[in-house]
Amino acid sequence: MVVIGMLLKGHQARIVTLSGTRDSHELKSPKFNKLELPPHPTQDDVEVFVQAIHAHCVKEGVDKIVINKRSVSGIGAGGAGTFLIEGVLLAVCKAVIEPSHLKTIEATDKKLAHIKIERPGTKDLGVAYDLAFEGLA
Description:
The chain is an alpha/beta fold. The protein has helices at about 45-60, 80-90, 100-110, 125-135, and strands at about 1-10, 10-20, 25-30, 35, 65-70, 95-100. Strands 1, 2, 3, 4, 5 and 6 form a six-stranded mixed β-sheet that branches. A hairpin with a 4-residue loop joins β2 (about 10-20) and β3. The chain is globular and about 45 Å long.
C-alpha cells in the first residue's frame, strides 16, 4: 500500500509518501515534500497544483491520501488556504482521501513510536509522516 500524508497548513501542503505496512515501510520520493497555492489562486495556479499531485500519485501508485482534520470552530480554526487545498484534493484525486485527527496521531505515538524509524526531523514533515503512517495497514 502507498499512502501520502499531507499536512495542510495555511496555503501549503507538506507531503510525505510511505509504502508498505506499519511494521515494514519505506519513505518514497523524499524530495517531493511541499506544494503551495498562493493566497488568491488563479485557475492556472490550481491547475499546476492539481497536475503536480496527479503526477506524483500516478508515479508512486498512491492508494490513499491522509490529511489533517481541520478545526471548524474556535481559535485557530482552519483557514481559507487549507479549505481551498482540501476542496481541490476532494474534487480531483482518484485516491481515497481520509482525514485524521492529530489526537489520533498522539494515541498511535504512545503505542507505536518505536517503529516510526523513517520519521523526518522537521516538525511539519514529521506530522505529514505521522499522517501517512495512520493510513498504512
